[in-house]
Write a structure and sequence with these properties.
By secondary structure, the chain is of the alpha+beta class. The strands form 8 sheets. Strands 1, 2, 3, 6, 14 and 15 form a 6-stranded mixed β-sheet that branches. It has a 4-stranded antiparallel β-sheet with strand order 17-18-23-24, with no helix packed on it. The protein has a 3-stranded antiparallel β-sheet with strand order 10-7-11.
Length: 530
């Protein structure tokens, strides 16, 4: 593109010179006069220079980014204008993926989506929203594991710029050295508890991703891989003996009072930061708050080991995607390789995001001891599977661990039922179902609430193209719901038709009949109360 622009400029200059030459009047040479004529010197007319009109940009390259990366990108605008005569327009977005999934299919999305976790690629690719990315010679400057994370079915769909994984933190006022095993975590912690120095042994900030190093230490996994190294959605490990053993370990230590029963992220960080727990697993996104709390801490070089060896965390890659619907795909490619894949810009992204860089020249310059320790601990990390089947895993996995934690089911039952449900969703006999799962479903006749697969509340398509369900006789109260497709949570629409958006909420002042109307053109839900 740049060569084309330069060629065009050259042609314009040549044409200008040619016109100037053609427009000069021919000069006749008169015969030499017998007497020299008297020539009066003319008064020189003032030279008036015509103002040069500014060159209008030939087009616009639109990038969506969050408030951390947007300022870095905005500084590139003058360079892009100079090089390509293009206006770089950076749009600040808080919900990058959700907004993109709504806007891109109708041609209203950006050319470039900047800063989305790699594991979203599978769904975006399956929906036809991403273009392939060609890094050319620059590919050698990126960490191979990060490039692998951006690869779906053997094709690269994003430029990676940062990686991240959990680290194992311990309070150095309470613990002299990092425990080598999960048994040692318990023995050291129980001794501190007995002395009254801590309230709980370890903070727990979640049920799935946040505990993955524990599950893997027992031999657990989510998906296996086929012989070609691709994720195998048919090899689901969520209900194997190792995962059940890890969940049993959690339940046993809950019953002993070693772990808090409230696993809220913020609350459990506060427990560690105030010295009420000795250990926590957290990622680089939590470094600022841990450092600012003043708690004395260190990071282990490895996660505690279990029966299957050292635990391994999930890892993520922050990527930059190109919209498949963009009219500027080649320009977007050039922007990524010429302006983003540079040491200067990648260093700024690293410093702003506080994530290890996926760009090898910058990674070699990393000197933050905490990020280096996390990188060491994550040397055996597993990249989160970037396949659509993961959309069927998260919610069911979380529900199984919560049921175990709260004593509503034993670990084996909870995980076995979750595995059965996930396999069913992956096989997806409910393809084409449109539903409104929510807090009303049990009252409407479903086995429970929030069940996207419940046939009782499934919607039917009318001749007008709209989907309807109900009426359902509901008692007075507050309710929530959202639209889900194909009997799973993989594709769901909340408020404003956004993928994974907020729940729709409605209140019945008295008993009433409630119906739902879904418009697939806008992904909007109408709630009709009679």
């Amino acid at each position: 593109m740049r060569k084309n622009v330069l060629a065009l400029i050259s042609l314009l200059l040549i044409a200008t010179f040619a016109l100037a030459a053609c427009g000069a009047p021919a000069t006749e040479v008169p015969a030499e006069p017998t007497t020299a004529p008297v020539v009066e010197e003319p008064t020189a007319a003032p030279v008036v220079e015509e103002p040069v009109a500014p060159v209008e940009p030939a087009g616009t390259l639109v990038v969506w980014a969050d408030d951390t990366r947007a300022p870095i990108l905005e500084k590139l605008a003058p360079k892009v204008l100079e090089a390509y005569n293009l206006e770089l327009q950076v749009v600040l977005k808080a919900s990058l993926r959700d907004d993109f999934q709504v806007a891109a299919p109708v041609g209203e999305g950006p050319d470039i989506l900047f800063g989305v976790p790699h594991d979203q690629a599978g769904t975006l690719v399956s929906n036809g929203l991403l273009a392939e990315v060609d890094l050319g010679d620059k590919a050698a400057d990126f960490a191979p594991v990060a490039l692998g994370a951006c690869t779906v079915d053997g094709k690269l769909y994003c430029m990676p710029y940062a990686t991240e994984n959990l680290g194992f933190f311990y309070n150095t006022d309470l613990v002299a050295a990092a425990p080598a095993t999960w048994d040692e975590v318990i023995s050291v912690g129980e001794a501190l508890k007995a002395e009254g120095k801590i309230t709980y042994i370890m903070s727990v900030t979640g049920t799935t991703y946040d505990l993955y190093p524990l599950y893997t230490a027992f031999g657990g996994y989510i998906f296996g891989k086929d012989d070609a190294g691709n994720w195998n959605a048919q090899d689901l490990g969520i209900d194997n003996e190792s995962m059940i053993a890890a969940a049993t370990w959690l339940k046993d230590n809950l019953d002993k009072g070693n772990l808090p029963t409230d696993w809220d992220w913020a609350n459990n960080h506060a427990l560690f930061e105030t010295g009420e727990t000795a250990f926590i697993m957290a990622g680089p996104w939590a470094l600022d708050r841990i450092r600012e709390s003043g708690v004395p801490y260190a990071l282990a070089d490895a996660f505690p080991a279990g029966p299957a060896g050292a635990g391994s965390p999930f890892a993520g890659t922050q990527g930059i995607f190109i919209n498949a619907q963009s009219e500027n795909i080649l320009l977007a490619q050039a922007f990524l390789t010429e302006f983003i894949a540079t040491e200067e810009v990648m260093m700024e992204l690293y410093q702003a995001g506080k994530r290890p860089s996926a760009f090898l020249p910058v990674l070699a310059l990393t000197d933050d001891p905490d990020l280096l320790a996390m990188g060491t601990a994550g040397s055996n990390a597993t990249m989160m599977p970037a396949i659509p089947a993961m959309g069927s895993v998260w919610g069911n996995w979380d529900s199984a661990i919560v049921l175990t934690r709260d004593g509503k089911q034993d670990p084996a039952t909870a995980l076995t039922e979750a595995g059965t449900k996930i396999r069913g969703l992956i096989a997806n006999p409910l393809t084409g179902m449109v539903n409104v799962p929510g807090s009303y479903q049990a009252a409407a006749g479903c086995p429970g609430d929030w069940q996207p697969e419940c046939a009782v509340t499934a919607m039917a398509k009318g001749d007008d193209g709209l989907w309807r369900s109900g009426p359902f006789a509901l008692v007075a109260g507050d309710y929530e719901g959202k639209v889900a497709l194909d009997g799973s949570w993989t594709t769901n629409f909340g408020v404003e038709g956004k993928q994974d958006g907020d729940n729709y909420k409605f209140t019945l002042a008295a008993d009433a009949n409630v119906s739902f109307v879904f418009d697939p053109a806008t992904n909007l839900l109408e709630i009709v109360i009679e």
